[in-house]
Amino acid sequence: MESNTYVQEVSNLGFMQQWFTLSDPAMEEAFSDTPLYREFAQLEEFARLPDESTILRFRHRLEKHELAEKILSVVNELLIQRGLLLKAGTAVDATLIPAAKSTKNKHKSRDPEMHSSKKSNQWYFGMKAHIGVDAESGLVHTVRGTSGHVSDIAEAHSLLHGEENVAFGDAGYQGVEKRPDANVDITWHVAMRPGKRKALNKENQADALIDKAEKFKAGIRAKVEHPFRVIKRQFGHVKVRYRGLRKNTAQLFTLFALSNLWMVRGKLMGDGA
Length: 273
Prior knowledge:
The protein is α/β, with parallel strands linked by helices. Helices cover 43% and strands 16% of the residues. The protein is built from 10 helices and 6 strands. Strands 1, 2, 3, 4, 5 and 6 form a 6-stranded mixed β-sheet that branches. Strand 2 and strand 3 (122-134) form a beta hairpin. The two termini are 30 Å apart.
């Protein structure tokens, strides 16, 4: 049985792999060439270095036992204890993550679990990452991975943790409160359709108040964009790395757990973490 120390070392290595967008072979090479990586993994100077097959086996274990989801849960428990993650409200959103369209691979085909979807008159092939975030802090509490053709609204209620009383979404979630799986105890604040809002007469007092309310809702919804920016810009996750939804969704859980820590790193370090 592997020691807890060795598991910790490989876990740290896996986190670095996500932060720097490295493949298994590239992570092995970087780990061997960069002393700082070995220091972060808490390896002794002449200790055995995990190779790419070790990294692969460890990731398969995370997938098999659904441990990536537990990583997010453990991180969030820590944040709740620190008072950084509240449960009064949730903002929901989804983003497309492109997959390779090429059939020049060993399967001679595109990933059958990825699908095309249209956004702003453009077609995208890949998957969607759906998230529910704390409306106060913008920290992610729920993650769902689906094929790209699954509508945002179809996953809306699965992104709620069940303890909130209000939820926020963009115009793509219009009618969410009427769906069969809707919770009647949740008050939804969904954005007005862009065209309808544009038609408001700001000189009219009633319309001006509606526009003001829309701006307030938009300010809360904007927080759901922050985690997407972190995983895409800070961690470089701009396309799917693996084949199949299960593997890529497991990676999303890890990425969003790490993005939560990144977003509150200053507060955690200030608390002596």
